[in-house]
Amino acid sequence: MEGIEMEGLDIFPDSITGDFCESVLRHFSKSDQEDSQRLCATVGAMAQELKEQDLPLTPIAYFGATCSSLDRLVSEPDSPPQVVQSLTTILSLLLPRIPVAVLKKKGDFVSKIVVTVLRLNSVTEVTLTSGLKCLAQLLVAGDKVIWSDLSQTYGVIIGYLTDSRSKVRRQSHLCIRDVLQSLSGAPVLSPASEAIANLFERFLLLAGGSNANSSEGSKGAQEVLYVLDALKDSLPLMSTKYMTTILKYYKTLLELRQPLVTRRVTDCLNSICTYPNVEVSAEALLDSLSFLALSVSGNETSPVSMTFNARLLSSGMMKVYSLNRQLCVIKLPIVFSALKDILGSEHEEAIFSATEAFKTLINGCIDDGLIKQGVDMIINSKSDDRKSGPTIIEKVCVIVESLLDYHYSAVWDMSFQIVSTMFDKLGYYSSYFMKGTLKNLADMQRFPDNDFPYRKQLHECVGSALGAMGPETFLGILPLKFEANDLSDVNVWLFPILKQHVVGAHLSFFSETLLGLAGEMKQRSRKLELEGNVSSSREANSLVHAVWAMLPSFCNYPLDTAMSFKELLSPICSALHEEHDIRGRICSSLQILIQQNKKIKEGKDDMDGAELSPAKQRAISHYTPEIARENLNMLTASAPQLLSLLSGIFLESTVDEGGSLQSTIGEFASIAHVNVVRTLFKKTMQRLLKVTQEAGMAEASKNNTMQVDESSPESSLSLQRARLFDLAVSLLPGLDEPALDVLFSAIKPALQDVDGLIQKKAYKVLSIILRNQKGFLSAKLEELLKLMIEVLPSFHFSAKRHRLDCLYHLITYASKEDSNLRRHEILSSFLTEIILALKEANKKTRNRAYEILVQIGHEYGDEGDSGQREHLFNMVARGLAGETPHMISAAVKGLARLAYEFSDLVSSAYKLLPSTFLLLRRKNREIIKANLGLLKVLVAKSKTEGLEGHLASLVEGLLKWQDDTKNHFKAKVKLLLEMLVRKCGIDAVKAVMPEEHMKLLTNIRKIKERKEKKQAASSVESKSHLSKATTSRLSRWNHTKIFSDDDDDDDSDVDMVSGQKSKATSKLKSKAASLRSKKTRRAEKSLPEDLLDQLEDEPLDLLDRHKTRSALQSSSNLKRKQDSDDEPEFDPDGRLIIHEGKKPKKVAALDPDSDSRSEAKSHFSVGSSRNNNQKRRKTSESGWAYTGSEYASKKASGDVKRKDKLEPYAYWPLDRKMMSRRPEHRAAARKGMSSVVKMTKKLEGKSASTALSAKFMKFKKIQKKSGKKKR
């Protein structure tokens, strides 16, 4: 019965009124099954009887009526089984609704009734499942103290564990599980578990007993499988003693190697390993897991079994480790060997499961004690006289290293992950166990790229080894080989890995060892240059720069900053002074040192939400606030020398690439003593005053003499002043309030300087001060506002962007004023200037103006008062009343940008539509372009419902303006109409379109239909990816796309506004890049057959790693030649050769294996016409036509046999178009095939290509005709 046989004690909720009858009827009345209908009738009759006796329709009343009815029926000799089934089902549904106290009181009575029902001769399957549910519920609700009170009922449920009916058997399994779960912690759990264990032992003896006949043995074996199915759910709930007893039998069952038995045993083991807080014997569980690991071999072909075994070994060993660590680590080598076999299989899912199992066991079961034991054994014993065997950790490392053998070449990407995990786990001690592994990785670097697709994974693995061992030990195993006579032998491939993965190193190693090597290489470079070997000299010099490029990595959480930075200071200062190419590297290194120690001293977390590598985690763990303080003290002590040097270099240099010098000066100024910064600032300002005076005198003399000399010292003085301003503002983090006042007093006259460079630098310095010094901004707000207005008449256009930055800081700070009037006054004073900056030709200035306008909108609207933002919008809209087209167009662009950013302003923008349409009629291209951009933003940002209300006015305004033939924006108008069609639909636009413009709408509709058909022709997969990728919108403003006046009609503007196309494309690329190819893996696993010919008589030892790797490298020279005539032809320089007309004969040197594969040179084929070429091309397009040309002979007619080729066959083109279903094609095929036999004798001795030539047949006919004429 559907619905009645559902698992669970309470399968449907009660009705609103709480009436049990109503709940049953609502749940089962819709079923067409006879049992369900009979159940509804029975419960309905019961409810009617209760109503007639004036009894309440409570679950207890139904319970009493059901029990009395069952008791009466079972006492009758011929009780109807259908009625008993319905009453038993009703009882199973009622018991969860009965209070526990009632069940305890009436439990024995009800149990006897149910047991009697189960023993009836005519009992149905549904009655049995319902009765078992009732017994389980009674046991769960009853007392759990005395076993004798439970044993009889419990024995009845156990008796059905091996029932032949699957539903009854499954229900008994579930009931046993529920009962054992309720007995957890009770004293009766042990005898309940004993009963199951005894039953299991009895069936085992019956299945394998010597006295049992074959039928009983077969029955016993089947019953053992049934009990194993029950133990899958119940074994984790049993007592430890009997769970151990059963686990001991599991090992014996695994030895049978029977798939049905093994699968059930492993399911039981998995339930134990994954069940939380289960108490189990570690020895018994480990014995089963060990045997399972030993049984995993190459003959296992089921991917499901291999995947399951890998996961079971992982979870099982973790369980054993939590119970008994010592027992677990002893068996680790066996388990690792089993996982290695699974990793070498051909099944993707099994490979991934084995990889994850390796990682889990390495991180979970290899602890510090195991590692220390191995290290002590290696240190305390010499390799020559060591008598003890390898330790556990050594065995495990050997197994991990073996994953790099050629046998696992198809899964090297997974092997690299496992080896990396091992390096990360061992940390510094990996140098004791995995030296050979690191050398093997270095050997794999020599593989050519064609045969080794895992270069990136290899470098990541080597980087893990570097992070674990540290650069000192790592470079001791894999040296850079700077001493090599040939510079090509230097391990330059290690430099990128060192740059990326060095963390937590020692500065002393860099200063003493690496810089020593760099010094020797520098001397070698000079020597090579003197010898005239310029290329080698440059190569040596690049190695020196590569060493210095590693300095930022060595400054990434170094372990000896306080002790070794002083030794590094001298070479750093020398390099800063002499080597300008590496100044950026040194500056970034110093910044890293200061910033990291400042963060740790202030207690800030350096995680930044990113997942850190184990090496970086270890490095950060060494840092404490006390260590960071000591490091900063050392850096502070070096600050005077470095500040003096850096400031001198900054003033002398003409370019500070990336601002590295300024940033480094600022970092040292933030940690240096106040007196040091004050002294340097004072010298800078004195020098600035002196240079300013000299510039003023030079300007005065220039005006007096009326000379215009480009080579005058005035330009150099301006550059000096600009550099001094930059140096002064670099010291800003260490300046106090009086020093800021001095700097501000120097800035004020510079804001009015006639030199544009000085003005630009002054505004830049002022913007930096306003951004970083809020106290200064608060104290001098009024003075700054007045100053910005006063210096406006003398303002130079080159300083526009930095002036906008100053205005932004002033306006945003003023937005926090309490008085709305004051905020309005400050904003209105500078808003016009910001709006006009939207029309700047300089892209950076224009974009900065847009950013400032948007940021002001956020400042004025994000505080909860949206009316302030609308007020800003209205203030910008006042520019539409401007007198010049420049001002009007700038205001329109500002409105478009605000409407694009803030959706709540779209409704306000619609109020400006009448003004927009009036402006469109003005014959000014600048104004028209801006207004079209505004309309484009409105259409793109509006919802369909809001856009339909303005659709008529939009279409009317656009089309009226379009009639003017003097404008250049017709394509943009058409694009706007297409956007409206896409948004509102073709019918809505057609309803408001004037009749004279219907042709335009028809053209738009046809273009849309063509695009839809083109998209429908694309693949389903691409469309699905695209639809998924375009669900999220990425908004990004693009001034050029919005306001472009190009007459293009593509969708670039729409895509820019929606921000969806690029994201979808990137989604497709990332999807394609993430797919893993099984075919590639399998193809790369086997050796090429041609390689065996190169090995002569010596067999290839596949266990020798070096021989197999050399064989793999040599396979790149043994590529098979492709014989297809469709392959493109290239000349020796790699250029594509394109032949017009007939394809010439291939050069024999390009393909020495086939010297006669070109077409036969006969006088019949040489004169082939263009029509024949077209016919042959048409045939090839319909299906590849095999002409047999490669069997043609150059010396004689007829075909010849070719080496490693099939024999020539019938002279008929194998063209798949002959398989067509069309009658005429089939008739042609039959006619052609029937003529093959007839033509055989006529064409005997001719080549296949000649026989197939249509010209040959025509030529024969012509010959016959001409012969007749001659006669």
Describe this structure in words.
A hairpin with a 5-residue loop joins strand 1 and strand 2. The longest helix is centred in the middle third of the chain and has 32 residues. The chain contains 63 helices and two strands. The protein is mainly alpha-helical and 1271 residues long. It is extended. A two-stranded antiparallel ribbon has the order 1-2. This is Ribosomal RNA-processing protein 12-like conserved domain-containing protein. Belongs to the RRP12 family. It holds the Pfam family HEAT_RRP12_N.
Short synopsis of the structure:
The chain is mostly helical. The protein has 63 helices and two strands. The chain has a two-stranded antiparallel ribbon.
Give short descriptive properties of this protein.
two-stranded antiparallel ribbon; 0% strand; mainly alpha; Ribosomal RNA-processing protein 12-like conserved domain-containing protein; extended; 1271 residues; ARM-like; 63 helices
Strand composition percent: under 5%
- Shape, per Cα inertia axes: extended
Helix content: 55-70%
Low-confidence stretches: 1-10, 706-711, 1019-1035, 1046-1097, 1116-1125, 1141-1185, 1254-1266
Number of strands: 2
Mean pLDDT rating: 79
Q: What's the number of helices?
A: 63
| Main sheet properties | 2 strands, antiparallel
- The whole-angstrom Rg is 44 Å
What structural class do the secondary elements suggest?
mainly alpha
Cα distance spanning the termini: 99 Å
Strand order of the largest sheet: 1-2
Pfam families: HEAT_RRP12_N, RRP12_HEAT
Domain RRP12 N-terminal HEAT: 14-280
Biased composition (Polar residues): 1016-1031
Biased composition (Basic residues): 1064-1082
